[in-house]
Hints:
Distance between the termini: 26 Å
Helix content: 40-55%
Low-confidence stretches: none
CATH class of the domain at 8-184 and 216-221: Alpha Beta
Number of helices: 10
Mean pLDDT: 97
Order of helices and strands: EHEHEHEHEHEHEHHEHH
Number of strands: 8
Radius of gyration: 18 Å
Structural class: alpha/beta
Shape: globular
CATH architecture of the domain at 8-184 and 216-221: Alpha-Beta Barrel
Amino acid sequence: MSIPSFGLGTYRLTGQTVIDAVRSALELGYRAIDTAQIYANEAEVGQAIAESGVPREDLFITTKIWTDSYAADKMIPSLQKSLKKLRTDYVDLLLIHWPAPGNGVALTEYMHALADAKQQGLTRQIGVSNFNIELTRQAIAVVGKGEIATNQVELSPYLQNSKLTTFLKTQGITTTSYMTLAYGKVLKDPVLADIAAKHKATVAQVALAWAMQLGYAVIPSSTRRENLASNLLARDLRLDADDMARIASLERNGREVSPDGLAPIWD
């Protein structure tokens, strides 16, 4: 299994905005696109991909099942609707979006349904999002070790999630970092700005490079072509041990997203 280290996130991008962002990203060389049923933009993402002319086999498309389709009799039909919107026969990665404890569908049921989607060839890989250590353990117990490709979680210099990421590494599960820039808050950080100046880079590039150097995948989003191009350069930025240590010191448990009824008890 393999998860691209760099992709385009499309959270909160809709309509022509997301079409333009995906189109620009693909023109610039992005090949991994992350969306979700709840983003209400799968059709627009699919349109932009179709119009790009990039061969399907060169792309890595991720979508996420929303909580109202976790039941065994709902997941596959909902995924088939997503595939139709995305104009593809399969996605490369399918995730459970939130654990949503107490929503009436047991983890065992929805993980079995997720595995069934893979068995049917509707997705190449499966994974989870926003799972804590215990729920990840339970998910592994259902589908088997080696089956969960990634756990996509909020992670930034202000929320480094070291307990969870250490556990995921022991299980061979890739950490995918979303909100790596903490809704833009890290862009004003003086430590990151100093590191950026040292490398003649942007603060965003430093934060993204930090995550990738730790072995995480990143999926930053932007509506501006120049920022999409700039973010891509983070793949070539190498931070030294002092830079990494300074960024490690920025941990403040600065979580931005934890919706009631959806989020687990965080580690």
